[in-house]
Amino acid sequence: MAHPHLHLESRCVHGGQHPDPVTGAVMPAIATSSTFIQESPGVHKGFEYSRSHNATRFAFERSIANLESSGLSEEQERTCGGFAFASGLAAISTCLELLDTGDTLVSMDDVYGGTHRLFSKVRQRSAGLAPVYVDLTNPALFEAALQKKKPAMVWVETPTNPTLKVVDLAAIATIAKKHGIISVCDNTFATPMLQRPLEMGFDIVMHSVTKYLGGHSDVVGGALVTNRADLAEKLRFLQNAIGGVMGPFDAYLALRGVKTLAVRMQRHCESGMHIAQWLEKHPKVERVVYPGLASHAQHAVAKKQMQLAGKPAFGGMITIFIRGGLAESRRFLENVHMFALAESLGGVESLIEHPAIMTHASVPAESRKALGISDNLVRLSVGIEHQQDLINDLEKALAHV
Ligand code: P1T
Questions:
Q1: What CATH code would you report for 262-398?
Q2: CATH 3.40.640.10 at 8-258, yes or no
Q3: Tag placement on the chain: N or C end, fewer CB within 10 Å?
Q4: pLDDT score at 2
């Protein structure tokens, strides 16, 4: 069932899904078989080997393709526009295989540390990839980078990890299209509930499913979605040829997570805004970065681009600068209790971390400095607990700063 006319909240539950034609089960079975019997060599029911064909993975792939508005056929048993992987990084790795040796990639300057590491410390060596990091919040800088050497791909995160910069997706997509550059948006922080890059002209959307899509900190996964049939064909080939696929148990958990994405995101956005406003008034906090605050450098773009049910909504990620340095940040982070000091984000439970030491340690120190990922920068992932309990936790921990 394609349900293209439904609202996103309904698409979370029903998008690309249909009851099992044999049993009527409303959730797909976890299809564990690694292989499928053939009547005669090459004569089978469309399923040959589970890396290539897995019904549980297909169900999740149809779900995320629908939510990201792929528009490619969902009527077939197999997805056309969505592809699921063993992790977010496996998804990124597969996407990079669209490029040829020596190609240039323009990347947003602030990206997840592991993404930066893959571009600069792996693909640069193994595939001659030339990553160029540009502050794409200013589309003129993208135009300027194109004059030097035309990239084959542009890689955007928005809001970015961890400095929460917001990139104008429509502006970047327009430039990329004009120059025939494949545009990719890592939509992990916003989720399709808040922004759908394909609708804004992007070619490919990438997700760390580990985060909001899974939503419960119990699955590691990744996804790519495209609305271009030519890219879908290439990605389907690469997914199978490289083999970093999502397993059936993970696909089941990911699909289960997506069903509640709409209600979770609503709560993440409400609490994110409330807590960002509270933090902005706290004397121990030097600065708060949250796209929903009027003080955010790209607040106007965020208001236009990030919406939930027709109203501006800004997600559950907040970045703060503690008054002081590493010692003060450590004291704060050692004294939170409900906020778990841990890497990752996007779960129902609130998480907090220190990017310079934890998630972005692999970004070279001079790049971290240029991006402002300093020792007093702390990243919060606001969960769905009661707002007052979260504020009480932060208040107590800030008293130790
Ligand atoms: O961890 P994995 O599922 O492989 O996804 C990598 C990834 C890709 N893109 C973004 C925006 C991400 O935030 C991540 C993973 N990030 C963390 C683990 C983190 O704590 O920031």
A1: 3.90.1150.10
A2: yes
A3: N
A4: 47
Average pLDDT of every residue of the chain: 96
Whole-angstrom Cα Rg for the chain: 21
What was the pLDDT predicted at 80? 83
pTM attached to this predicted model: 0.97
- Mutating to test ligand 1, I would choose from 211, 213, 219 the residue with most ligand atoms within 8 A of its C-beta, which is 211
Query: Is residue 250 lining ligand 1, measured as CB closer than 6 Å?
Result: no
The dihedral through the CA atoms of 146, 149, 98, 360 has a sign that is negative
Ligand 1 centroid to residue 317 C-alpha, Å: 13
Please write the tens of the pLDDT for every residue from 46-86.
999 999 999 999 999 999 999 999 999 766 556 689 999 99
d(CA 100, CA 153): 11
- 340 with 382: CB under 8 angstroms? no
Helix, strand, coil abundance in the chain, percent, nearest 5: 40, 15, 45
- Sequence spans of domains, the chain: 8-258, 262-398
